[in-house]
Specification:
Blueprint lengths: L1 H23 L11 H16 L4 H4 L5 E5 L13 H12 L4 E5 L2 H9 L5 E6 L9 E3 L5 E9 L16 E4 L3 H6 L6 E4 L2 H9 L5 E5 H11 L5 E17 L6 H14 L1 H10 L21
Parallel strand pairs: 1-2, 1-3, 6-7, 6-8
Antiparallel strand pairs: 3-9, 4-9, 5-8, 5-9
Helix pairs in contact: 1-2, 4-9
Length: 296
């Protein structure tokens, strides 16, 4: 119905333009040539007036939604070919929209989306809307993230209390890690994963708290040796795309798009293609494909 209305309006505009051209170019013999150039100059205004009658969605092409992320490798890359880049862009494509993934430091990413400076946040745990009320969570998870302790030592751990007496490193802005180590005697907050794993390599901390999958990506990229994650994970959480509430009406459609990707094999294909180079195994042993993803 809407499409027919737009086409009908366009046809009317076209007829008006053709009539105007006939008059301007002398097909109507009664018009004098001295009116040609003044009439030609008026044509843009004429077209603009009729174009204003079209519905807004028929005039303006949708611009990409800006999705903020603090990831810089594996999950999200500068050329938008990371695992979550491809998953989220495909989900948006399936609902007829474009998305552009842009880097933002961890501490600012959520705040910028909450303030409307970006349209969404790529990947966060459940419940972020409690502290950032302008966020709307897409209910279908992007993935399951295992939060683990990386170490160069053979340490025995079992839960948060077991690491209280260690020198702990955490990337600032990773809320689940900050909250669960609050009050620990020796916690170092660093701006990025680069500083985190550099500190572990130089023995300035006993453990580096991070996601298992992307932690092994950092070790792989920098050629560090002797680092491994400790079992069991300190926590495992569903991770979700968040939207600014001005786009909250898209949450269910994006959730359905993600579910359809898991059902038709697109999700597994993207995950496999973007993580196949990693050998992520228990206690650091080579074992491809042990990273955990949501695929139900």
């Amino acid at each position: 119905m809407v499409k027919e209305m737009v086409l009908s309006t366009v046809e009317i505009v076209n007829r008006k333009v053709m009539l105007f051209r006939k008059k301007v170019f002398g097909l109507n013999k009664r018009i004098s040539s001295r009116f040609f150039f003044p009439a030609l100059l008026l044509m843009p205004a004429f077209l603009l007036a009729f174009n204003s009658a079209l519905p807004a969605f028929a005039q303006v092409k949708a611009t990409p939604l800006i999705i903020s992320t603090s990831y810089k490798s594996l999950l999200s890359t500068s050329d938008q070919t990371g695992m979550l880049d491809l998953l989220v862009k495909e989900a948006f494509r399936r609902i007829g929209l474009d998305a552009e993934i842009v880097f933002n430091p961890t501490g600012r990413s959520l705040s910028d989306v909450n303030e409307g400076l970006a349209d969404g946040e790529l990947n966060r745990i459940e419940g972020m809307e409690k502290n950032f009320p302008n966020l709307v969570m897409v209910p279908e998870p992007n993935m399951v993230m295992d939060f683990v302790a990386f170490s160069k030592k053979d340490l025995s751990i079992d839960g948060w209390d077991s690491i209280r007496g260690l020198r702990v490193g955490v990337v600032k802005g990773w809320k689940i890690l900050e909250e669960n180590t609050s009050g620990f005697p020796e916690v170092t907050l660093v701006p990025s994963e680069t500083e985190l794993f550099n500190m572990l390599d130089k023995d300035r901390i006993d453990i580096a708290l991070y996601d298992k999958l992307t932690g092994y990506e950092q070790i792989h990229l920098r050629g560090f040796e002797g680092m491994r994650h400790l079992e069991p994970p300190l926590a495992s959480r569903n991770m979700h795309l968040y939207l600014h509430n001005s786009h909250g009406n898209l949450a269910e459609s994006l959730a359905e798009a993600l579910r359809s990707m898991k059902e038709d094999g697109t999700y597994d294909r993207i995950v496999s293609e973007t993580t196949a180079h990693l050998m992520v195994g228990q206690n650091g042993k080579d074992c491809p494909g042990e990273a955990t993803f949501e695929d139900d």
